[in-house]
Specification:
This protein is α+β, with helices and mostly antiparallel strands. The chain has four helices and four strands, in the order H-H-H-H-E-E-E-E. The protein has a domain of 74 residues. Helix 2 packs antiparallel against helix 3. 4% of the residues are buried.
Length: 110
Amino acid sequence: MQTIRPKEIETKKLFQSRLESEHEASSHVPIHNRLHAPTLSELMDKRKAAKSTQDIERLAREYGIESTKLESLSRFITSPSVHSGTAQRTVEKDGEETFTMTVRYNFISL
């Protein structure tokens, strides 16, 4: 009979994932079809402005991913757009500033 330790397996996977992520971050060579969250958000923002399939293919090449992957991602992921003129600045009594603005999500499919 084999003893199963799910938490131990889960912990090993977590450490392995972190190690791979650190290796990617320290590497100067981008990994094909892999993007960090801020880069993905930037790509999705630029994709909103794409007018044609050629624009999307150019973006995909620029970011090192396949255009089919970009299309697949765009069906499930988007980035918010800020409505112009809705930003409100509030200064609290202690001097802390907060900015509030209305955003909208656009689901684009070409």
